[in-house]
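Hey team,

Filing this mostly as a record. A colleague (T.K.) asked me to run one chain through the structure pipeline before their review meeting, and I want the input and output archived in the tracker in case anyone asks later how it was produced. No errors, nothing strange. Just documentation.

Input sequence:
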Amino acid sequence: REKTLITHIEDGLDFLGWRIQRHRKRGASKRFVYLYPAKKALRSIMAKVKKLCWQDVNLPLDALLHQLNRVLRGWTAYFRHGSSKATFNYLRAYTWKQVFGWLRRKHPPGPNGADLWWSGKHKHHGGNVQVISTPDGWPIWVSPVRPGREHDTTCARHHGLIDALNRIAAELGMPTLVDLGYENAGDGFRHPHKKPAGGELTDAQQTYNKVIRGVHGVCERANALLKTTFKALRRVSLDPSRITKIAAAALVLAALRYKPSGLKKRADWEEVWDLQRKEDAAPDEPAKRKIRDSIPVPPKYTSADFLRPPTGRRAASWTCPRSGSSPTGRPTPPPPSCTAGPDGTTASRRRPWRRTSPTPR
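Output structure:
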């Protein structure tokens, strides 16, 4: 085959991926020789983009974008010296269309054509993460993310929480406090009574709802702690499947940031529980007080532990929840739950922390 081509400059030729041809300049009568990417080179890069976007949809989004960037960066760097603006715009639109199609295949719509990651409750895209907390509102477990359109009970059943928490309640007598989203989940769950259609709750049911919501409201601090401390959980611009790793990292960082030193191992907690059992079995109050004084102080997580010291006029009345000192150096009265001794120290009247039932979201 002949490698030499003799052609008119008006017809143009392809050389090393470039199209060399003379055109009339837009808005003028003069004609110039232009250098821009050839159609063969454009079809080649479009085929590579399509091949990458039709691979395994189980890859995370950042892995796909990393592969596309390596291909597109080299191709555009080679053709950036010519008149390539129109070609680059076309390639950008084509790449976006392929990536969007990859995302639709990765996260297909629901059975009725709705978007699985659209939450009808919050009117926004998002995911469903189940959280288990202690009775004082400290998160101890977070689940992998599920589409935001799924119901709480559906997500809990997918993670195996329904069977596990019902078994814990049956064997250990530790029920789980939940909201109305977990209605009819099992005998191991305690939730408020639902108002019947066209009827009213009885006085006993209303009192029961107040008690359940009052105790469960404290446990909701776990969700507030994670979402207010870590902005990445409030607005996620990555692949929704990455929320699982973000939530797990937030749980670990929250424990490292807020948990005081001491009682980090299970053996330390077992020692506390043994002393508490001895305190309950003590015959008289002096013996109980002696045992109570020997119990190590475990971490007590309240809303005050998660507040930053205020500034301005409020700083004078603020007291550190752990040290009891004020940033202004002025003496502050003890909180209502503490009693002041003759030497100026304070002692809490609250009983030590005890192991109780876990509470999910």
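Quick notes for T.K.: The first strand starts at residue 13 and ends at 15. DSSP finds ten helices and 14 strands in the chain.
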